[in-house]
Structures are given as C-alpha cells and as structure tokens.
Amino acid sequence: MNDDFQLAGAGRSLPPIKVTILPQDALVAERDPRLGPLEIELPGEACLGPGPTSARFAVVDYDADLDEVFAPAEPLANGQGFKGIRRGRLDHVFRQVNVWGVLGRTLAMLEDARVFGRRIPWATGKGRLLVLPHAGYWENAYYDRASGGLHFFYFESPSGRPIYTCLSHDIVTHELGHAVLDGLKPQYNELDGPETAGFHEYFGDAVALISAMSHRELMVAVAGRSQPDFANNPIAQIAAEFGRALSEGEYGSLARDYLRTATNQQTMADLAGSFEEHDYSEVLTGAFYDFLQAAYHRRLATRLAGGRRRPNGGDRVGALISAANLTGRMMFRALDYCPPVAVGYLDYARAVLRADETAYPGEPGFRELAAGIFERRGICRSRAELEERERIANRDLRGLDFDALSASRSDAYDFLDRNRAILRIPALANLEVVAVYRTKKVSANDYRPPQEIVLEFVWAEDLVLKGAAYGDLSGATMPLWCGGTLVFNRDGNLLHYVLKADDRRRRRAFLDYVAYLVRNRMIGLDDGEKGIGARALGANRMLGRMVAGRLHIQRSPAFRHAGRN
C-alpha cells in the first residue's frame, strides 16, 4: 500500500471526514450567499488517499486535452479532511474535493436503509468509480462504463466566465445517477426504445433533485420566508450556471438560466411519433416533481391540523424536507420491483405503487396521489391499469426451496427452470440469472418493512433486420432482451413478479426504433476508442457493437446529451 494513504487500524474508530462543497453551483452561490460553500461531514474511511481516493471513488485529475495529470488533494494526517484547500471555484484542490464530497454524500444517501437499503454495485464490477474533474475542454459531462468513470469538463462562456461542470451539484449528481442505474440495472444500457433511454435521463434528474433537497440550507432558502414557488426555485432549475453559459451564445440557444427544469406539463400523448429520449424523460421528471409538490401540501396540512391557519417557516421547511424524503423513498425503492430489461413507464408506475404497498400496506393515501399523477401524465389509461400484475401464489411454484434459491445463482436457475410454465418463461429460452440480492430497508419512523430478496433473470430473442429501412445494418441479428424480477420476503413468500416477455408489439416497436436511428444517421459501429479521456468528437450518438454475432445498440456515453440540452 502506498504510504500516502491514511490507514485506520482495526482497533481505531473512524472519525468523520469534514469537507467543503457547493450545494448548488457557483452561479447560484453568487446569487444567494446562503447557498455558498458548505461544510459537510462524510463517514470515516478505513483507507483514505490522495485524489481524494476512498472505498467507492478515486479522483484522477487527468486532462486529456493537455495530456497532464494535476497534483491530487492530499488527506490530513488524521484522515479527517484535506490539506491546502482554498475555498473558491478557481482552486484546483477545492474542485477535486468538492466533486468527491458531493458524490460520496449522494451515494451514502441512496444506499441508506430509508432508500435502497443495500450497497450499490458499479457496472464495471470494480469497487471504485473513477472521477475526472478536469477531463478536458468541452461543454459536457458524462458517465462511461467502458472507462469506469465520471468525466467532467470545463469551458469558457462567451462572456469569459470559466465553467467547471465538476462544481455543479446538479450535473455531478445527475451523472452519478447514470452510474447508479447502470450498476443496479445494467441491461437498461441496451436500448430498445425511447422509454428505456428516457428512464436513464429521468433517473439522473431524480437523483439530482433529491440530493439537492437533502441540504437543509437549500430547503430554508426555498421555503423559509414564504410559501415555496415551485415553478421558480433552485430545486427545479437544474444546472443554472451551465445553462446560463449555453444561453449566452454559440454553445446553445437556451433563453433561460438553467439547463433543464423539473416543471413541465409533458404527457405521453405529446410524444406521439417522437423517439427523443429527453422528451420522454420530461414526463417522468415532471411526474416526480408533481408528486413532490402534492406531498408537500399534504405534509403541511398535517402539520397545521391542530388549528393554526398560517404556517411559519419551520412548518414549511419541515414539510418540504418530509415531502422530499417521501418522494425519494417511493420513487427510488420502486427500482427493485422493475423488470431487469426494457423498462417501460407503465412498468415503473406499477412498481412505485407495488413497492410502497408492500412496505406500507396501511398507508394508501400517497399511493393514490401517485396514481392520479401517473394517469394525468398519460402513463396509464386508467387507475385499474396500474393494478394489473402477475399474481402467483407460493403453492403454484414447484420445489420452492427458498434458502437454496437465495443462496446462489445456480440454485436460482434451477428454481426458474422447474417453474417455466407458471412463470411464463419459454421452454427454449437460455436463461441467465443476473442478480440475487437482499435489502435492509426501514421507514422514516424505523419500522422495518419485510426484508426483500430479489431475483432477476434475462434471456435474448434474436431478431434479424431485413430491408432498406435498416441501411448497412440490414441482415444483422439483434437481441430483443426479455426477463423478469421476483421479490420474496425472508420467509420465502412471493411478494411481486414482473415479466418482460417477447411479443409482437415489442418486436414491432423495437424494429421501428432501430429504423428511426438508421434514418436519422444516429447509429454507427463502435470505433474502438475507449479509456480515460476518450471522447470521439466525430462519433455517432448511438454505437453498435458486435458481440458473439449479435449487434448491440448502446448510447455513446460522450453524446448522451447531444442534440438536446
């Protein structure tokens, strides 16, 4: 082990690490001093090194354009902070520590027992995610599975202001959201249509929103003095500084001081004929924000139930914090109840309601709020459609040895194989068990919902692209991914089952999507450029990769946000 690392001995407690971060971005901090640099505490690390480097993240300050590695932030001898930090966006070390601190705090929030209740893996299979705070000169930031890293760039706005994406709390947490989703549901990286692609963008925005709202200082700024203006506040306006720079000139055409907003009225009906994933993401991001507002008003009404007519700042801030916690709990926990492939918005809406019903069977009120929002957004045609799900009882399952199937993937496969008929898995499908895991979740009042044991499996059905609509891809074989998720409690009772099967509608939608990509020249074969600093400026928005004779379509990481700010 390098002597530069600070190691905590076995008999030594781990004191918290104090770091300074920006809870929004530099522009927001200049506008409102209450949202300037903020000292936070992170859990102590058994092994803390230069970079910073910790158990889950390694900051590597390599600039590909300059081909230079900058000196890393150095931990204090006691492991409780870092040396030589000068507060301010122009200080290199501050930017290194800021991005590391924001990432660490947000990941801990997501892994907390009140949200996912388990350790989130990285899709690379490695323990640490690489973080490049100054990857090069570009108006961009992205997560890339191939390099196992988060790439943050810098540029100069037309007015001469230096913009560092690693200082934008919203951008940093949005990109972390892509990495988290890729770790939890790696097959969502295989694009089969705009809803799965849009879900990635929604999830990044949702992580950014909830992470921002975890800062009490921001909640006080939004709701402390008056009723919160949900249409115009630092929560809803995502990436203010980056958006301002784009609006100034040649980098874009935004007539606003933010990159995206959570306030929109987009419905599924508005998307007829569209394949643009950012348009699709707005439906779910808008639904998420709708629910936050509705939950706030209900929480505030509960606080005023004693007879007071006018809420004070403490009431408003408390209600907003409570609503944010509730929204994060419901919307994120649902991921464990989603199919492992090709998630659709109706799949997700059903998962939101079912996961909450399992954990809080006696509290239907907020599920009713969510159902109404999903219906207004056109995600479902009726409330009844949200209730449709696979209903399988334990007595229908053969050889249900719960201890065995939850202990290994091979035993889980044997269970699935014996129950193909009842689970509606084709007899010839070559199954792969992709995950078996347990959760340890609690509620806000420390009530422990049933411990969940989740089993996920997938298989691929081959499709052959035929005809001029597919251009040079005609004749290629592509996988249509299918799969399912089973959720048991620790007593072995089946709580939930969802299956994404092969059918004519899915095949037609998938082929139409591929034809759209070809028609708009959005897809090309992988050029092989990978690794730290790789960004392929001339690459396509979508990359096709040949794997074992099959063509797989994935988003080009560096161009995930291309074509739409």
Structural summary, described in words:
- The relative contact order is 0.10.
- The chain has a 4-stranded mixed beta sheet, covered by helices on one side.
- Helix 4 runs parallel beside helix 7 and helix 5 crosses helix 8.
- The chain has helices at residues 26-31, 92-111, 169-184, 194-213, 216-223, 240-247, 277-303, 313-333, 345-359, 365-376, 383-387, 402-405, 409-418, 420-423, 504-519, and strands spanning 6-7, 17-21, 38-42, 47-48, 57-59, 62-63, 68-69, 129-132, 141-144, 149-152, 154-156, 162-164, 237-238, 260-261, 432-438, 452-464, 477-489, 494-500, 523-525, 542-547, 550-555.
- The protein has 15 helices and 21 strands.
- The longest helix has 27 residues, at 277-303.
- Among the domains are: 1-184, Elastase, domain 1 (Roll); 394-519.
- The protein is α+β, with helices and mostly antiparallel strands.
- Could you give a short account of the major beta sheet? 4 strands, mixed
**Cα-based radius of gyration, to the nearest Å:** 24 Å
According to DSSP, the number of beta strands is 21
CATH topology of the domain at 1-184: Elastase, domain 1
CATH architecture of the domain at 1-184: Roll
| DSSP helical segment count | 15
**Terminal Cα separation, in Å?**
43 Å
Strand order of the largest sheet: 5-8-10-9
What is the general shape? globular
Low-confidence stretches: 250-258
